[in-house]
Structures are given as structure tokens and as C-alpha cells.
Write a structure and sequence with these properties.
alpha/beta, 365 residues, 11 strands, two-stranded antiparallel ribbon, elongated, single chain
């Protein structure tokens, strides 16, 4: 196991390992895990590859502008569909119109229930009137905003001065590791001291990518040798966070399918291990969902919310999807708050979720 300090530079330099004299850490069943010496994996041990994340400064213009840019594919597809419903003189809101509107809404992957709610709201407000597209879009936007409202998007922090522990879960390819890097950068820039834990030990590329992120950000990272017990990495990450009086420990977990029972059980083991080190940890279990996954994202949310006791969502790859409406059924069915959204490929392209800005950006012309 290696603890090392990443410094901001173009690529992480080779780092020296920590002392070999660390004691073995007991696992959750009480059996000793590999010592730090046995689990040593410094940055210099890991192959480097081209940084895949753009780091140019993001465009300015506020949250709405960023949301609008990220949702451009969904918005363009949706507005084209809705525009086709109208003639220059407007359109009578009758059963035929409402049926056509419903079919257009479904194409955003918002699901039957949410599309019905929006359609019914349009019917209630505008039935039997001749309306223009802007009026219909304003009604749809307001209903969408109302459906996405949530009490808070803020992360839940520990209350007794100990480090806040955040576990991040999701399937391979969901954008999990990239989202961790963006989140860590977001929190680091707000003045928080961050420790990253590369707990996806079965995928070398994930450890490598997270190491690069740590180098970009300038924060601590804890790694283990390939295929080391992820729970041991999680334990040592939390231990390091306590030792250096860090504010937050963010722990990557092995990407897995929500149907893999044994791997889901491993998440429970990680929860128990970090809870032994810090009472009440983890304070957040964040599920990263791929916006491009459409309705499959709902299946992921169901599996993970049950097995990992998720407390919130990061909606990733929002800029690459024409199916951004999937956020609606996820909120409706699971009541999991959307904490953050990924708005692009840059290191700063993440933002706390805002229901009003999202709804407006989804339907803005």
C-alpha cells in the first residue's frame, strides 16, 4: 500500500514510497491483510498513458449556460420533435396534440409515468386553447422543475470533526473514476483537504487514471497492488485521512454490474471496514450513472440503491446524451437526490445539481 503526495504538474512524477514499517491492518473478519510493504504500488510502478480528460479552462456564463451546453443533444432532439407539432398559426391543444406530445416526451427516456404527468399538466393548463410552442415549452419546463425539486444537493459532512468519507459506486464505463476526479477537484478548489483511495484494484486503468487526476489536482492518493483487497485500500485511505487531518476521503470502488451479488457484498464489507475506523462512515455513498445509458440507468439505480445504500447520484456524460430525461424517473422512483452533474470533459466540468437550471436548459430555445 502506498501513500504519496501528488503535486500539480503535467504528469505525476515518480514518488518514493512510505516506510515499510507500517503494521498489518486487520480486515473486517479480524484476519490480517497484506502489509504496506507487500501491497506497495507507487506511482512509478504504474504505466502512464495520455491524459484523456481535457483540462482547458471551461467556458464562462454561469450554471444555466453550462447546463444548456451539456443538454444540447437532448434539447435539440426534443425541440425538433415538439416544433414539428406546430404550424405557424399555432396548434389546438386537443387529444390528438396531447398524444403526439406524449410520444415526443417519451423519446427523452423520461419514462411513461413522468411523460404522463407532464402531458396531463399541459392538458390541465392549456386544453382547448390554440397555443404557440413557447407557451407549451414554458408549461413543460415548470412541471419538470417541480418534479426535479429536492430538499438539498449538498454533500452530507461529518459532524464531529473527523474526515467525511465518500464511497463512489457504479458500473464499469459509467464515468465513475472521472467523476471522482472532477468531484475531488471541485472540493479541493473550495478549500477542502482531500485524500483519494484507488479502491478499484482489479482494473489497472482505473488506478492509473485516478493517479493522474491526483497529480492534476495536487492531493493525496492511496493505492494498492493489483487485485489487492479493496477493503484494505479503503481502510488505509480513511486511516491516512485521519492521520493528516484531511477534510474528505473519496474512495473509488470496483466497477460492477448491479446483478453481481458477490461484488455487491464486497461493497458492504467496505462499508463495515471504514465504519470501524470512523463511526458513522461512510457519510455519503454516491452512485455514478451514465446519462447515455437511458432506461438501463434505472436498473442500475435500483440495484445499487438496495445493495450499497446509496445517498445520492452523480449524473455523468450529460453532454454526450440525447436521453437526459432519464433523471426524472430516477428521482420519481428512488427519491435519491442528484448531487452533481457532469457537464463536459474538462476537469472543472461538474456542478451541483440545480433543478431550475436543468429544466430550463432542457427545453430552452
Amino acid at each position: 500500500m502506498a501513500f504519496w503526495r501528488s503535486r500539480k504538474k503535467e504528469t505525476p512524477a515518480e514518488e518514493t514510497s512510505s516506510s515499510d514499517e507500517h503494521s498489518s491492518i486487520p480486515n473486517v473478519e479480524g484476519e490480517p491483510l497484506a502489509s504496506d510493504h507487500d501491497a506497495m504500488a507507487t506511482a512509478s510502478d504504474q504505466p502512464h498513458r495520455e491524459e484523456v480528460v481535457k483540462t482547458e479552462p471551461q467556458k464562462t456564463g454561469g450554471l444555466f449556460a453550462k447546463m444548456r451546453g451539456a443538454l444540447s443533444k437532448t434539447r435539440q432532439a426534443l425541440s425538433t420533435d415538439i416544433r414539428d407539432l406546430f404550424k405557424s398559426e399555432g396548434r389546438l391543444v386537443d387529444d390528438e396534440f396531447l398524444g403526439e406530445l406524449f410520444s415526443r416526451l417519451i423519446r427523452t427516456d423520461m419514462g411513461v409515468s413522468c411523460a404522463e404527468a407532464i402531458r396531463d399538466d399541459v392538458e390541465k393548463r392549456l386544453k382547448s386553447r390554440v397555443v404557440q410552442m413557447d407557451e407549451v415549452l414554458a408549461t413543460i419546463t415548470e412541471q419538470t422543475r417541480s418534479m426535479l425539486e429536492q430538499e438539498s444537493t449538498s454533500l452530507r459532512y461529518s459532524e464531529d470533526g473527523v474526515p467525511t468519507v465518500i464511497l463512489v459506486v457504479g458500473v464499469n464505463g459509467s464515468g465513475k473514476t472521472t467523476s471522482i476526479g472532477k468531484l475531488a477537484n471541485h472540493l479541493h478548489r473550495s478549500g477542502k483537504r482531500i485524500v483519494l483511495g484507488a479502491g478499484d484494484t482489479f482494473r489497472a486503468a482505473a488506478v492509473e487514471q485516478l493517479t493522474i487526476w491526483a497529480g492534476r489536482i495536487g492531493c493525496e492518493i492511496v493505492t494498492g497492488k493489483p487485485e489487492a483487497d479493496p477493503a484494505s485500500v479503503a481502510y488505509q485511505t480513511v486511516e491516512k485521512a485521519v492521520e493528516m487531518n484531511a477534510d474528505i476521503a473519496i474512495i473509488d470502488t470496483a466497477g460492477r454490474l448491479q446483478t453481481q451479488t458477490n461484488l455487491m457484498q464486497q461493497l458492504e464489507k467496505i462499508r463495515r471496514v471504514v465504519g470501524k475506523k470512523i463511526e458513522g462512515a461512510p457519510h455519503e455513498v454516491i452512485l455514478v450513472l451514465d446519462s447515455t445509458a437511458g432506461q438501463n440507468a434505472i436498473s442500475q439505480a435500483r440495484g445499487f440503491s438496495e445493495a450499497a445504500q446509496c445517498t445520492g447520484i452523480v449524473l455523468a456524460k450529460l453532454d454526450g446524451s440525447a436521453k437526459g430525461g432519464v433523471i426524472l424517473p430516477i428521482r420519481e422512483q428512488f427519491q435519491l437526490p442528484v448531487k452533481f452533474v457532469g457537464l463536459g470533459e474538462g476537469i472543472d466540468d461538474i456542478a451541483e445539481f440545480d433543478a431550475s437550471a436543468f429544466a430550463k436548459a432542457l427545453f430552452a430555445q
